[in-house]
Amino acid sequence: MGSRMAATSATTFSIGSTMSFSPKGSSLSQSKAFGMRLNTRSFLSFSGLKGVSSISCESESSFLGKESTAALRHSVKPKAQKQNRRSWNNLQPQASYKVAVLGAAGGIGQPLALLIKMSPLVSALHLYDIANVKGVAADLSHCNTPSQVLDFTGASELANSLKGVNVVVIPAGVARKPGMTRDDLFNINANIVKTLVEAVAENCPDAFIHIISNPINSTVPIAAEVLKQKGVYDPKKLFGVSTLDVVRANTFVAQKKNLKLIDVDVPVVGGHAGITILPLLSKTKPSASFTDEEVQELTVRIQNAGTEVVEAKAGAGSATLSMAYAAARFVESSLRALDGDSDVYECCYIQSELTELPFFASRVKIGRKGVEAVISSDLQGLTEYEEKALEALKPELKASIEKGISFVHKQPVAA
Ligand SMILES: NC(=O)c1ccc[n+]([C@@H]2O[C@H](COP(=O)([O-])OP(=O)(O)OC[C@H]3O[C@@H](n4cnc5c(N)ncnc54)[C@H](O)[C@@H]3O)[C@@H](O)[C@H]2O)c1
């Protein structure tokens, strides 16, 4: 995200840079950028200035899509005409959705909440955590964007945090710390995801569910089993957020090949850990050629990018800001889909029939009811390297899926 706040009364605020995938045109992999740049002299929006003077939108930036831009425009204009800057109600965009973040006080949760607070498609932002969420909500609530921020602390407030919610994002859990085994991490996060998804099943069973808590190769199957046992499983609405792999792939490929970042679109399939992450470099748009060494180097870098961040932070945590950015992009895509945009494509980890594995990350089309189509063409015409990598990842991904399923079978949910 980039913002430039001028010292004069004229302010330019431009948001982010990413792309969404367009099915139109000659190729399914054609990328398309949506976004906006707001040239404000004095309007009440992210800039915090007063009265509308100009708002122009260009398709060159942001995970905020064209629907969002239209909603923002709508939200700003009537507000300014009324010259009433005190009532938040007058700032509601035409389309408005409720989003809950579970684990909102964490390293990912906080910047993610901030980015969601910037979305004009959101009318209410529910922040839930077991501790420290009151301050986060108070802080965020001072941002003069349309959504209302509510805080919910502890298990007794979990149900209320989920009532009427359209999208639930779950970054709750622990990140791996020194001395912790993978099994320790699995057991803690598996229990957290199980408990939270039980509450989702009871309070907002129709919501889109975005799972961020690792290991998502297992926590998504856990969520699916919980929802099944609760009798409310809709596989089209359960998503493992693997967007960070795509964000990283796009960035690293653009750097390597000297491409304009906004144009680059690399599908990433498989799972979301180590070798299960498979960037399909041969499907890069715009089309780019890679030497064998480049393929190897880029693939390994994308697979191990999390470690790059952990090492750079030197004990102070793992990827939180880039993860929040990626998760916010996925939330925005979901909201645009819910709002009727028929042009929403993302890679994510879902129940799938694309391979013999019951869960698999791939590019999908998202609509009002969740996953509308799986883009199978991405797996056709793979290079020999990609074919081999695809076969190599399957046993590990299969084991992770089975581990998640058997975790829930060993401790079934309360009916
Ligand atoms: N999907 C991805 O690409 C990706 C990337 C990075 C990290 N992660 C995962 O995201 C998770 C969170 O990472 P982080 O860096 O924000 O960790 P963090 O420790 O900074 O934050 C986790 C938050 O979850 C809260 N929490 C713990 N138990 C809870 C419960 N039962 N209910 C609600 N909230 C609870 C904690 O209080 C804390 O605020 C980890 O599992 C991490 O591995 C996923």
Structural notes for this entry:
This protein is of the alpha/beta class and 415 residues long. The protein folds into three domains: 3-75, no CATH class; 97-242, NAD(P)-binding Rossmann-like Domain (Rossmann fold); 244-401, Lactate dehydrogenase/glycoside hydrolase, family 4, C-terminal (L-2-Hydroxyisocaproate Dehydrogenase, Chain A, domain 2), CATH 3.90.110.10. Helices cover 38% and strands 17% of the residues. The protein has helices at residues 66-82, 109-117, 133-141, 158-162, 182-203, 216-229, 243-257, 292-303, 305-313, 321-338, 384-410; strands at residues 11-14, 20-21, 31-32, 37-40, 97-102, 122-129, 148-153, 167-170, 208-211, 238-240, 268-270, 277-279, 345-351, 359-367, 370-374. A hairpin with a 7-residue loop joins β13 (345-351) and β14. Mean pLDDT is 82; it is low at 1-61 and 71-93. The structure holds nicotinamide-adenine-dinucleotide (NAD). The site of nicotinamide-adenine-dinucleotide has 31 residues, from α5.
Sum up the structure in keywords.
415 residues; alpha/beta; Rossmann fold; L-2-Hydroxyisocaproate Dehydrogenase, Chain A, domain 2; six-stranded parallel sheet; three-stranded antiparallel sheet; 11 helices; disordered N terminus; binds nicotinamide-adenine-dinucleotide
Question: How does the SSE layout of this entry go?
Answer:
Blueprint: E1 11-14, E2 20-21, E3 31-32, E4 37-40, H1 66-82, E5 97-102, H2 109-117, E6 122-129, H3 133-141, E7 148-153, H4 158-162, E8 167-170, H5 182-203, E9 208-211, H6 216-229, E10 238-240, H7 243-257, E11 268-270, E12 277-279, H8 292-303, H9 305-313, H10 321-338, E13 345-351, E14 359-367, E15 370-374, H11 384-410
Parallel strand pairs: 5-6, 5-8, 6-7, 8-9, 9-10
Antiparallel strand pairs: 1-4, 2-3, 11-12, 13-14, 14-15
Helix pairs in contact: 2-10, 5-6, 6-11, 7-8
The structure holds nicotinamide-adenine-dinucleotide (NAD).
